[in-house]
Amino acid sequence: MGEFKVHRVRFFDYMPSAIRTMAFNSQTERLAVARADGAVEIFNFNDNFFQEKVIPGQDGRATEALCWVGHRLFSAGLNGEITEYDLENLRPQYTVDAYGGPIWTISSNSQGTQLAVGCEDGTVKIFAILEERIQFQRNLNRHKGRIISLCWHPSSAQIAAGMTDMITIFDAETGHATRRLLVDRAMGASKNKEVVVWSVGYLSDHTIISGDSAGKVQIWNGLTGTLVRTYLVTKWDVLVLSVSKDESSVIAGTSEGTVIQFQFISSTMDQHDKEWVRTRTFRNHSHDVSALAHTDTAVVSGGMDTQLVVRPLLDKVEKNTQESALRKIAFPHRSLVGCAKKAGLLLFQFPDRLELWKLGESEGHGKPGDRLPVKRKPEKLIELKRKGEDHICCSALSACGGWLAYSTVSSVRLYRIQYNNTISINKVSKLPKELRSVHQLCFSSDSSKLFASSCQSSVIVVAVSQQECRYLHTLKHKTGSRQPVHLLCASDDGKWLATANTDCEIHIYNLHKMKLHCMVPVYNSCPTTIAIHPVTNNLISVHADQQIFEFSLVQKEYTQWSRRLQAQGLLSLWLERDTPITHITFNPKNPDHIILHDTYMFCIIDQSLPFPELNAVLWNQMTLKSLPVSQRIGQSHAFKICKSFQHLMCVSLLEDLSLVVVERPLLDIMSQLPAPVRQKKFAT
Amino acid sequence: ETAARLFLSSSKTVDIEKPAESFTLSLESSDDEAPEEVTFEDSKAEALRSMKQALDTARREKQLLKERRRKRQELFQEQKVSVCHFKWFQILSEAWTLLKGKYTVTTVKERTLASFQQQVAEEFIRSRLYGPGTCRTTNNEMLSLQNKKGWNKSAAVQFVKKDWGTFRTSLRLMTRGSLLQLLQSSWCNVSSKDKKLKKEKKKTLFFLTDYFLHSLL
């Protein structure tokens, strides 16, 4: 298989942003997650929880709430604005100032005709949802104190609003407050501290469920205004509630990191005396849980520890299957690291800046497992801070290291880098006006062209040179899909360009003729990474369901190897991995090798070796070496896995055949999170 | 029973008071004689008086204790702030040397009402979740506890970068307002008659705060 010198890189200080809120769309099976930095991510629950889309954040957006209305996504934040997102172009479509101060909550009625927002100034504002926009209708009666949470009654006739020390029920038609439910403050020392009702739920039978800062979940009768039941679930705050669609289950998220489930069940067989009973407690987070979504089969939670956790409910799914496994999504499903293979440079993408690093050098040789002495330390060459409020969406570094580009939702910037005695970076000022709304960037291997994906999966081609940046061509496809391109790659010989969009379409363009060459047959799982082999010009694609395909660009059909793999089937250990493959690279010395990685392992697929059996165990190389030779040959199959490095942000192979492994241990991220609650544990 | 409890509670800080005011009046008498008869009214008055005295004493002691605790808290706060001040002076001087090399005068955006309101709202969340009385710990401690209680028990977590999980994090949690206050109080309070100079100083102060907040948060 070969030995590699490995550059083990741990200086990418990637810090994910806390999950602030989420909303699940049961029609489309998409989960929208809003982060503290204003970014919105869309996960496809039908496609192995793949993170399909990322809308970059913006300084000051401070998103507090998300809301789906049909296929439309709205958010509201502490900047006082309601934003509707353009999910085809991955940007805010427009923003509307509610003129009520910071907005704490947003919710639509069940018909999808009105949006209610809860504001800092104590008003609940109603907006009409029109075709291309929203329009302010009226305010409900103003109350003293901020409106922290609200929920429509399924009939759209009432709104329950959670405030400080109380819950107010409004008549949505007249705007009058019809009832006030007074919430008790905490017992003991915190009696002077006001209790904040962080979340409310309103059921069809007029039951109101509230979660507050005193750690209580309370069940109220909304018609009589009386308290039915109180559950003290935590010493800290209950930050969020979510009601299931059939209203039989409610989940509550706390500052302790627990998610508590309540179910409407009866204690007797005849099912007549149902009541809300506390059932399960899930402990899947180390920090505050501030976002929840209750799907038909699972409990989805997220919070200050930045991880998205999907916990299937074991009474809704088949036990001991892939379906019932706990899923934790801690890293993005796309690569944030660019590698200039010829120059030995790394580009790290942060929301607010780019960092260009030169890899270090070592001397001497060693045996596998040895740590070589470092002759020259890695060096940060450039730190480029973005201009403006919009966060960086994508970036690219040319293979020679001489060109750097990044884009935000509002602009594209191109820089020329020169390496003499000192590093100099110069912005290319006049860019073609066609370079707008760019989602992916990629340089050609000879650094003469820049490819930028734009609206409706089109690709803008511009020529870059010392003197200028000139628009060349726009490549378009014929399917009529309006979905954005999330993967873009160019072949080494400069002839081919491949794009993949979130409609699972992969298009191939001929760059010599500057036109569409063909489209790969659509596979119903979204590709997570694509790459073109430098020698064979075959396109390798790996999908969210972990399937691998190889497509010959010249023949316009799947290769023999790919057909054989499909016929045999991938081994189950491969298919059960729960993080997507985010990068593919090739070995210049051995064209049979395909090197790919996910968060927990990297793998070298040797196309000259036989496929493993479906139930084969994947031994790592250390274990294999310890086996007797005869057994070793029997284990010799195409998939060589290495789990020595974690958590992987990128694995790449340089021109000098050394491997670059960029790791970001989860512990490093955890240590820099905000403070968790202090739990008193026995015997500590 | 209430009087007895009061005596017990105050016994921690004050010498146990002799229950000198007993409920029966005793006179010099021989063993043979029956005890002096006391009227119901007298003994009732006596009981009420002693109870009132006990309540007064307890109340006084509580006040004293409260006062003492408040003074101690203030002292700790001052010490903390002075340490913070010192650290801020260090950071400030570092920043000046950094800025001296590439110092440019920039005009800071006017603080609009909207951004002020947003600031207030953000401070509200921070004080509710991380403010006093919220009982938080450091990531260091939490991870160490996990190590100690996990299946494979191991030592406490010690980070290579000493400031991880501790001071830096707590700085991040200080509200913007209090950070600003801190900076302002540690800023040399040179009263300037020149309005323009004062304005310039204020602008530089805001710029510095933003710079620190941006780099620290």
Automatic annotation (TrEMBL), chain A:
One of its GO terms (biological process) is maturation of SSU-rRNA from tricistronic rRNA transcript (SSU-rRNA, 5.8S rRNA, LSU-rRNA). GO terms for cellular component: 90S preribosome; small-subunit processome; t-UTP complex. This is Cirhin. It comes from Pundamilia nyererei. One of its GO terms (molecular function) is RNA binding. PANTHER family: U3 SMALL NUCLEOLAR RNA-ASSOCIATED PROTEIN 4 HOMOLOG (PTHR44163). Residues 440-621 form the DUF7165 domain.
TrEMBL record, chain B:
GO terms for cellular component: nucleolus. The keyword Nucleus does not apply. InterPro entries: NOL7_C. This is Nucleolar protein 7. The keyword ATP-binding does not apply. It holds the Pfam family NUC129. Transmembrane segments: none annotated. Residues 48-78 form a coiled coil. PANTHER family: NUCLEOLAR PROTEIN 7 (PTHR32337). Residues 103-165 form the U3 small nucleolar RNA-associated protein NOL7 C-terminal domain. Keywords: Coiled coil. It comes from the Eukaryota.
